[in-house]
Structure formats: C-alpha cells, structure tokens
Request: fold
Amino acid sequence: MKGSYTAVSVNPSLKNKSLGKRIWKNWELYLFMLPALLYFLVFHYGPMYGIQIAFKNFVPSKGITGSEWVGFDHFERFFNSYFFWDLLWNTFSISFYELAIGFPLPIILALAFNEVRNGPFKKSVQTVTYAPHFISVVVMAGMIITFLSPSSGMIVRFIEFLGFQPAQFLTDPAWFKTIYVFSGVWQSTGWGTIIYLAALSGVDPQLHEAAIMDGASRIKRMLHINLPTIVPTITIMLILNMGNILGLGFEKILLLQNSLNMEASDVISTYVYRAGLVDAQYSFSTAVGLFNSVINVILLITVNQIAKRTSENSLW
Amino acid sequence: MVTAMKESKGDKLFVISTYIYLVLSLLVVLYPLIYILSASISSPQDVNSGAMWLFPKNVTLDGYKLVFENPKIWNGYLNTIIYTVVGTLVNLAVTLPAAYALSRSDFVGRQLFMGLILFTMFFSGGLVPTYLLVKNLGLINSMWALILPVAASVWNIVVARTFFQTTIPKELQEAAHIDGCTNLKLFIRIILPLSAPIIAVMALFYGVGHWNSYFPSLIYLNDEAKYPLQMVLRQILVLQEMSAETTGASINSEVATAMNNKAETASLIKYGVIVVSTLPIVAVYPFLQRYFVQGVMIGSVKG
Amino acid sequence: MQTTRKPWKLLLSSALVVALLAGCSSSNEGAANNSTGEVTVNKEGFPIVDESLTLTLMAPDVGIQNWENMKVLQQMQEKTGITLEYRNAPKDSFETKKNLVLASGDYPDILYAAGLTTAEQMNYGEQGILVPLEDLIEEYAPNFKALLEENPDVRKSITAPDGHIYSLPVVELSQHWYRNPMWYNGDFLKALNIDKLPETTEELYTYLKRVKEEDPNGNGIADEIPISSVTTPAANLRDIRTWLLGAFGIYEEEVYVDDADKVHYTPLEEGYKEYLTYMNRLWSEDLLDHESFSQTAEQKKAKAQNNQVALFSDWHAYMSKGGEPSTEDPMFAPVRSESVDAPAIAKNRGITTGAFAITESNPAPEASMRWVDYLYSYEGAMFFNKGPEGILWEYTDKENRVKKYLPVPDGKEMEDYRATLTPNYGIPAPTLSMDDISKGLKTDFDLWVEQETQQKLLDQGARIPFPTLFLTVEEQTEISNLNSDLSTYVKQMEAKFITGAEPLTGWDNYVVTVKKMGGERVAEINQAAYDRWKSN
Reply:
C-alpha cells in the first residue's frame, strides 16, 4: 500500500447526501476540532488587532486608536531603503541555501538509519546526532567564532596542517552564508530525521519481503518502497519550509555579524531588530514583519498549488 | 526490520557505505559535542585562547559547582518536569483529535478550518495584546500561562494530519464504519493504538518545546519559586556576564573588579549550562526510539 | 527540518512591546488616581509618615537576594515608616516586563532603577502615567534640590520639553571616565626602554611598530599584537574608537558639540577622515589586530593574558592581563595628531536619567519623594551604596567622613556580600555618587588610578562631548528613521576604509551618500536640541 496523501473518507455512502446530513453524521469530528479551534480563536485571533500599527504612525502618547493613519508610508520607507535589495537578496539566498542543503540531508540520514539493524550502534548514532539541536544559539555562535578564529581556531589550524591557506572565514563576506548554513545543518540534521523515521515506520514489511523474493537489491528496495512511502511527508515539509523563507531568525546572524561581513550578513530581521527595538520604531518593524508574512503566504500558496498539480499531496 | 535472506555483492557494498556514512556523521557531530563537555570543565583561559581543543585542560569543576550549589536549580528541574508533562498532555489532547478530524475528507468544512489555522502561522497580533489577554484571563503567575497560550502548534497539527492520512489504512477505517463503529470509538479503539509513532513524535516535539522554553516564563511568572530550569540557568549566566559597560549603574572599582571576576566564571559555566539542561532530554530519547520501528503499526493491523 | 522560527516571532512580538500602551491603558482607567491621600507626611526628619504606609515598587532584580531580606531596605523601612512591596522582574527581561506592566494598566507605585529613556519619560509622562516631580522636589526633596542648585546642568538635563521633570537621575560625581581607558602593557614598555609615553600619533605609530618588530615579550615568536579591540554586534571598535578619534579633535563617535557650541555629526568630519587614514595605516602594517572585528571579548582577554597585547582597553589593566592590580601598566595618555593643538578627551556625562519615577497610581507621592530624597544625601547614598555602618565598613574619622573596610562576614567576597545587603548592585539606582563615599576606602592602587586619570585626562581638558538632553518626539522619530540606514552604512564603510577594502579615495562618494541619507540632518536636529538645552 503506497502512501497516499488524499484524505480518507470513511463513509462513502455519505457522498450524495445533503450538507446538513453530512455534518450531522460526523458530529463527533467537530468535537475533536473544538479544543484546537477554541485555542486559535482565543489566543491567536483575539490579539490580532495589534497588527494595525503597521499602517499607523504609532506614537505611544496617543495610543493605537489615536495614532494617525499613514497607510503604506512605512512600507514605502522600507522599500526605499538604501539597503532594501541587499537585505532581500541576503534573506532569500540564505534561506534557499539553507533549504537546498539542509532539506535533503535529514531525509538521506533517515533512510540510512532505516537500513541499519536496531541496536546500540544505531541508538548511539541517533542520540548523538540529535544532541546538537539543543545547543543554544549563543553557545553555537561562540563555538563557531572560536573554531574559525584565524589565530587559534582548530579548524583553521587543521587546514594549515593539511598545507592549505585558510580563508578569513569570519570576516570575508563571501564565506558568511556558507558558515551560517553549514553550521545550521550540523545542528539540525539529526533532529530533522525524526519526522521521516516516524513516517518510515509506516512502510509495509511485506512489500519488502515480496521485493526480496523478486530479487530486488537493497538500493532498489529503498528507492522504490521506502522513499515513495515518505514522499507525502517530504512534500508537506517542503511546502511548510517554503512558507517560512522570509522568516529567517535574527539571533544567530546577529551574533555572527560584524562590520566586515555585513554586506552578506545583514538580513531583514537584523535590520528590523536594530530599527525596531534598538531605536524603538514599532510601527516600522511591524510593517516589515507584515511584508514578510505576505511574501511567505504567497510563496506557500504557490508551492502548494504546484504540489497539487504535480502530485496528490498538498497542504490544502 | 527485514532480515535479509542472501545479500548480493551490490547489497553488501550498499550496507557498508551506509555504515561508513553513519560513522562519518557520528564523528562530525561528535567532535564539537566532546568539545562542549571538555570546555565545561576546563579553565576559561585555555578554552578562550584555543589551547583546549579536545580534551579538558586544567580541569576545574567550579562551573558545575556554581550551578548545582544554587538551591534554585533543583526547584527549577522540578518545575520544568511538571510543566513539560502537563503541557505535553494538553498538547496531545488538543492536537491529535484535531489532526485526525482534518485528515478525513468527509469532514465538512475541513478546508475552512485548515485555512483558519494556517493563517495564524503567518499573522499575529503581537506580544502586548497577548499579554493583556493572558492577564484578563487571570492566568498571570500561574502554570497555565505557560501551557494554554501554546496549547497547539500549526506545524505539528499539519504533520500529525499527514501521518494520519498516510499511515492509517483506509480500508481499516471503512471496515470499522461498516461494522457500525462511531467516530469516537473508531478514534479511541482503532486509530490511537495504531498511532504510536505519531504520538511519540508529537510528544517529543512538544515536550522539548516546553523543556527549552523560557520566554513565556520570563513575562508571565512573578514568583521565583515557579521558575523553570531555563530561567534559573539564564539568571546564573546573566549574573555572571554583567559588565560595567552595560549596566549604566554607578560604577566604582570594587564593582568593576567583582564583575571582572564574574565574567571569568561566566565563560566557564556557559558550556556547563548546556550540559545540565540537555542531558535529561538526550537520555530520554532512546526510550521513545522503539516506536519508530518500521512496520510496527502495519503488523498490528494484520493481527 | 524543523527550524524554530521563534526568534522571528519574538522579534515581531517584541516590536509591538509598547504597542498598545495608551490604546489599552486608556481603557483601563480603573487605576487609582489620588495623589493627595489621607497620609500625613513629615516634611523633615524621620519617620516620614506617622501611620503605616505601603507602596508597591518595581525594579530589576539581579537574583542574588530577595529584596525583603536586604538589611538596607529593612532598616529603611523602620526609619521611614514606609513599607515597600516588591514587584521585581529579572534584570535581563526587565525592559520587556516594564513595558508590559505599563501597558496593562496595573502600575507599581514606584519605578526604581527602571532605566527610563528620555523617550519613555515623555511618552508616559504626557499620558499622565508618570507624575510630574518638579513641585514635589521643591517641597519634599531638600537634598535633591540642593544638588540641583549646585549643578544647574542637571536640572536642564532632566527636564522634558514640556517643562516637567518626570524622573530622577543617577548622579555620578566621582567617576569621570566616558569609556574604559586604554592601558599600555608595562612589560613591553620596559623591554623596549620607553621612558616617555607617546604624545603624538606619529610617536604612537613608531612605538607600535617597534612592538611588532622587536619581540618585547621575549618568547622568540613574533606574536605580539600592538592594539587589539573587540566586537559585539553593536559595537565594533567602540572600546578604542573614541580614544583615537580624540587625536583628531573629535570628542565622540556620533554627535558632539565643539567649543564654539556647534554640533557636529562625526562621520562627516575631516577629522574622521584623518582617523580612518591613520587606522588604515595601522591595519595595513598589521599593528591593529586583524581579528578586531570578529573576536569575542574572551578571546581578546586570552591574548592579553598571554602577554601578547601592547595597548588595549579595559576597566583596569590587570583585568585583561591577569594577575594583581599593578601600577606598572600606565594609562593611555590621549595622543594628538598634527592637525590639532590638543587631543579631544571625552568625560563622563555624570547623569543617567530615569532612575526613579512615581506613577499615577501612587497614593502618596510626597512620602515617596521624601523616601528617595534620602538617597541623594551623603548619609543615604553611603547607606545604600555600602550597606549599614558596622557590617562592611566603619568610620575611623566621622568628622571627615574617613572610613575603613571591615573583614567580610562569612569570609565571602565583598561584592557578593554587599549584593545581599543593598539593592544598589548592578542596576542604575537613583543616588548620588560622590567622592566622600569612598573616602578612606581606596587602596593605593585606586589612588594611583585616580592620579593617572587626573593627570592624563582631567588636566588635559576632558569635557562632556554632548550633554544629556531630551529630544521632542518628532525629532526622536526622525533621527531613528534616518539611523536605520545611516548607522548601518557608516559602520560598514568605516570597516571598509580601515581594512582597505575601500580605498580612501572613495571618501568623497561616501560623504555624498551619508549626506543623502541625512547625516547633516542629524547634526541639525541635535543642534536645535542643544540650543534649547543651553538656553533653559
């Protein structure tokens, strides 16, 4: 049984009945939905009015309702910034780079884990690869700086030991994105396998037995049985990640950023962080955040549509 | 795990390469982890100058002493465990039924609900409106302020829904329905038992989220006695990292000297703090791992 | 790959931290508004009130000691008759908590060491959340009033454009450093037989070059680093920049006022260009640590401890170099370049605003003012700074305020113990910091440092680069808007000019861009504010 992504209809006989009947028949499902719906309504939609300051010139002494409406002024200011295109480019390229490298690796690793017999070796490798996920961003950045320090970093010394000339990893703009992405991959790959491992547990062993009878090699079996089973999961994860492209967090970048690599390391979130919190411009930072969200939504919908057309799997 | 009958040469090569790949991954990940462990017990001078690069140098347990001698630590551990367990249970109770309902194509309105939920992943009102809401609900300074506002995550609901759709056999559900099974019974008697991997994954994701969280505690809790582990650790670390330039306080020589000394210790415990907060989780994982075994559910279907 | 995007959400959310201030607090009008309670306040002497009075107080907490158990606060309570209920927040999250509390309408009566910025004072003051203090000072704060009379600049600096004083400051009369000073490595000076410290930029250059070439730490390796600096995301080179800018007649790295009352925006000045040229020279000859832009403070310290650095910035030299306080490492005497007669040396402004404020929910502002006024007297400042007499210190000559330290109880570190006695530890608490407080308590080393400061900084014309003052909300907004792009660009270009990534011939283009981004406007706005301040 291949992993299909279409929703399951348990009651085919309902197909042609009236709307009311269909709702009534599945009344329990609405109960299932209730806690979650309540939660989102109360804790997410409730506070949502705060978004409007993106369109106002928020002056604290006048409050939100008293602050004047400026429409798209903040957005214009952002678009007209000297650094707008650089910021956009940096944000997009780092995110896509991260996706390109960091998305396939957990899948490959999960498939590899799956091929190995259960036992102490498998367990220890798994546990070890999960551990980096828990390292705080501050320590992570500190370690990166320590390891790559031109005078004392161990990676640098290792490169010199091999006879090569190490690059200025920390200050050369050309290296920033790579350092950022690869350290991120190092940190998150292990943890990322969890979802795929869970999905792989849905593979039918009988299929494998049948395939072995037919003389299929391991590779073939992995590619034709295991992989297709998790394709729905992969698709969903891809869509969700694409919908988060501009959501690049600022903490790690801020810690690795310096005046020399800034042209490659300044992204939307760090720029806004400086403006929004350091200089207290709440409307502006809200506006930029809104811009990000809109772009993310557009991306999400686009990728979702593509997924819908090309496969049976999609977010909705 | 399918036991191989007779492995061909190609297969043998494949297996060996897989093992090599795993060993390499292990080494690549392992080195920095050992570094952290060593750094947590080495003298800061050696760590910062790069003299320590693998094995501890000038071993000192001062860092750990500082952390564990702080009486608040144990309370912090206790609190975190409580928040994590309760929080995760709430998460599961909210997420799983909803994800299952959304996985059913005969569920009228599922697109609407899905859209409503997805929307909140992108647009949010902000910290102050949320804080006011929590305050108006009377939750300030209570454990529930850490649990209810994060009762479900869109991401996890989507993932859980995906699992339900792909791994629970359709035939099974149809058969049960024909037998007269109500949705509730179906869910409890059949779906859940088959969902061990899903539950395990959700428990892990949500659990770790609770374990690592500190920001909600920061803004909603007033009593130190209620602080979770991460808050206590942060306090210790921040205390050590206070520097003259940043406090704006009136500085004189004694203060500066004291701060200077503290900065040294901060260097030291930075790494120890990670070990202290992470070790429990990393130790728990192996127990959850057995749910991720291939065919664990399908087998029970046949049975 | 499940990456947590929480930091982004946090940013977005935090960006709305102050968002609903008045929006919601105006709908939360329930807060009590009686400033004239039935509390009778004694205008002088103690206790301050005859019937018991309880007030709530919010302050940043460093987490060492529960405020209710601090001896200073307990004794203060007995003395004044005012009981305080503490609603503190941890120091590192205080900003967030403060804004949330003020937005929620549930105000504490007193804000202590809250670090209110001028913008916050104006905002909350205009809304009526903060009570104006100038009348209260007149009537109920004799100590602070006297302080204002002796230092009229203080009044100018704490008065908002609308004429009200919304908070009391920390007044620093004894600490004159604008930034941590720079220090010479004494061992190197000796090894190279230097008996007179460099006085000009050329002499400095020559010295640094000698350090690089002549192996003063004697280990046979050319590992010396003449100057090293540290990075934090906000502050590349900040620890040495102001000192070196002074050589070219510039007092501060962003905005300063010259002797003719004209306000300058540093990144546009000729002197700044000369600074860049000089730094570029140091960089290209490897005299300025090439890791200055990317290393952490700890890494720089490790280098200093390894006796590799010749010139560096820190509170005291031994803090970087390790070991005991030593008078062998002389303080950096600011050098001058050929284009000026004397170096421009910046001095501590002496005022940090926003240390104490009273909110509209406070039932007894008069009593509160009397309470805090004590902290601006010698006795009160002494008490809150060092704790009660007889624990950590005692008088040897009370007349002349000379004291000595006593052995620390429980054999602890003095500062650690002091933190359990008084709240004034690591937070910008309202008080007066004066020389008399540490009279008799200074070690020989402290006295030596004072001497160095006097000779090399104060006697050489150190002055405040730009006074503490209020900008109007519009001025504030405009400058913040400009700075998003401006400061990013300036910082980037500085690094490029210094490292040579951008040749100095690109200066003219740089100036054009800075002007386009509004550099001159920043100077204009500050000039207007300065003129206002001066004429007050």
